[in-house]
Amino acid sequence: MSLVGVLSYQGGYVRHLERLQTLGVRAIPVRSVDALERIDALIIPGGESTTIGMLMERFGVMEALLSRIADGLPVFGTCAGAILLASDIEASDQPRIGALDVTVRRNAYGRQIESFEADLRAEDLPDPEWTGGDFHGVFIRAPQIVRVGHRVRTVLAFEGQPVLVREKKMLAATFHPELTGDSRIHRYFLDRIVGV
Ligand code: GLN
Question: Which structural domains are found in the chain, ordered by start?
Fold first, then answer.
């Protein structure tokens, strides 16, 4: 049975660990290279991407993760996790994994609407592997994905912009699927990408 890690330095990692347990998946927090070497897939939670990136570098996890991703480790980043996966972060030279060919704009929805919820409509789902209908998205100081590379597929969009994208074994959401009771996005990652 697969072992799924959740990067657990800062941010919303507890909810992801709980969700994985609810889904009957073995899950562990990851804070060290040792733990990283044991897992079959990794979730990178929301939080503060600069802080998480700095801690990843400090504990040697950044370098080790890059090599595991190059070897095909499935990775799912939510919000700050999506920022850390992005190859380009507008106006920032913060530490990043940089393996996903997208450009993100941090805190892109502005101060007035730092957090909001929106129904991501089923007709905005061009990915034939997605079997669900609407998804309720919780956005908290969310980034926008303002460019996607040609190998990146949009799974869910909101107001014409990608909010859930996939490239190879990487999945990135600009919102927080762990904060709703709906497990379809976790399931999508586990069933379609990790293959547990
Ligand atoms: N604004 C945060 C950042 O730029 C991300 C917010 C979140 O993960 N909910 O890192």
Answer: 3-194 (3.40.50.880)
